[in-house]
Design brief:
Layout: E1 3-7, E2 17-20, E3 30-34, E4 41-47, E5 50-56, E6 65-67, E7 71-73, E8 78-83, E9 91-95, E10 106-109, E11 115-124, E12 134-140, E13 148-154, E14 158-159, E15 164-174, E16 180-184, E17 196-201, E18 205-213, E19 216-217, E20 221-227, E21 241-242, E22 246-248, E23 254-257, E24 268-275, E25 287-293, E26 301-306, E27 325-330, E28 332-339, E29 348-351, E30 356-363, E31 382-387
Parallel strand pairs: 1-3, 7-12, 14-20, 21-24, 22-24, 28-29
Antiparallel strand pairs: 2-5, 4-5, 6-8, 8-10, 9-11, 11-12, 13-15, 15-17, 16-18, 18-19, 18-20, 23-31, 24-30, 25-28, 25-31, 26-27, 26-30
């Protein structure tokens, strides 16, 4: 019977002595087969039953290469590793970039600049140096993130009747820097490479911008610039300033302050919009709108309810050519309404289901002459209270 012991050593053990203990009957022989490309030859020393197999490395490393990527992103490390086909290296000398001078088998290569860097390594063993492989790594910039947190501001969001100039400025707080801006609104030139756009408008206009860069578009930001009286009809064109319209909700008690909409001075109008839902039945109890000064001087005012915005014409209870009802000359002024048939007497405005109405207020007095009152301030702030009709 012939026994055969097959053994494969690792590269790390190639230069070490390998010891085996053979136990066999005197009449049998032992055969050892060993495959290790790091060993150039083997020797067997010792006496039968206690012998040592020695790996002989008689040549320097050969067939050496560098494994790892050929591209990298700046400021992000990559791993380069020296490998040899033969020769069991036990020392390495690196060159190139931040790897220069390292003596380990692997290098964590990194670069803070864009460009090509050539890395090299010379593996060695106890016999000598092997071949010196090289690897070119192309370092590039990290692709930028798309812009984020973008907002659009305007030099003003409230222009007088007739409109005027407005400058728009886009700003992004996150992501990569924008390189292009796509604009919409009032036929703005688009796209642009700057974050500022200027234009002139004559009516209330909504603008938007979408900043982008090489990675893609960011979020779209918007802003609306109001022009006094825009889209509200010819009566509003008579005033220098019409504050942005406030929307009242039918059946909901509410309060508003004129200062939240803008400067409520002379020749200005504050408008509340009220829509009576279709199918609303006649009211059991009347509702009212009441206005008075708020953190300001006592100011005579005129208050109307009409199907026309900014309507301060003489009362016409059917609302055909004037407001359904009005209150004037009081520093506190109130008008009442209900869903009902309009009446010539009583002073309550008769509203129709499905119709839109405007509650209009201005600083105004009949005395000493109509319209002669001057509140003498940039803004004579007022409060408006709504007590809804039922139902």
């Amino acid at each position: 019977m012939i026994r055969s012991l097959i053994l494969r050593t690792s590269a790390a053990l190639a230069s070490a002595a390998l010891a085996f203990a053979f136990v066999a009957s005197p009449v049998h022989a032992g055969t050892v087969t060993l495959n290790d490309t790091n060993c150039d030859s083997f020797t067997l020393t010792g006496n039968a039953g206690n012998q040592t197999l020695n790996c002989i490395v008689s040549n320097a490393p050969s067939g050496c290469t560098i494994s790892g990527p050929t591209t990298g992103t700046i400021n992000t490390p990559i791993t380069l590793t020296a490998q040899c086909a033969t020769g069991s290296p036990n020392a390495w000398t690196w060159g190139g970039g931040n790897c220069a001078g390292l003596t380990t088998q692997s290098c964590s290569a990194i670069s803070s600049t864009i460009g090509l860097i050539t890395y090299s390594v010379t593996p060695r063993n106890n016999v000598g140096a092997g071949n010196t492989p090289t690897k070119d790594v192309s370092w590039s910039n990290t692709p930028p993130l798309a812009p984020s947190g973008c907002t659009l501001g305007a030099s003003t969001t409230s222009l007088p009747i007739g409109g005027g100039a407005v400058t728009l400025t886009a700003t992004c707080s996150g992501g990569g820097a924008p390189t292009s801006y796509a604009w919409t609104g009032n036929n703005l030139p688009t796209p642009t490479v700057t974050n500022v756009a200027s234009t002139n408008i004559t009516a209330t206009t909504s603008f938007s911008v979408t900043p982008s860069n090489g990675t893609g578009p960011g979020n779209t930001a918007s802003v609306t610039v109001n022009v006094a009286g825009s889209g509200l009809g010819p009566e509003c064109a008579k005033f220098a300033n019409v504050l942005p319209v406030v929307n009242a909700t039918w059946g909901q008690q509410s309060s508003w302050h004129s200062q939240d909409s803008g400067s409520f001075g002379d020749n200005a109008v504050w408008v509340i919009k009220l829509v009576v839902p279709a199918g609303t039945p006649n009211s059991n109890s009347a509702g009212s709108f009441t206005t008075a000064e708020f953190n300001g001087p006592n100011t005579p005012r005129q208050l109307t309810i009409s199907t026309t915005a900014c309507d301060f014409r003489p009362r016409q209870y059917q609302g055909i050519n004037g407001p359904l009802t009005l209150c004037q000359d009081g520093t506190s002024c109130q008008i009442s309404y209900s869903v009902s048939t309009p009446q010539a007497f009583g002073g309550i405005a008769g509203l129709t289901a499905g119709q839109t109405y405007y509650i209009n207020v201005r600083n105004w007095s009949n005395y000493p002459t109509p319209g002669g009152y001057d509140c003498a301030q940039t803004s004579c702030n007022a409060i408006m209270n709504h007590q809804p009709a039922s139902p």
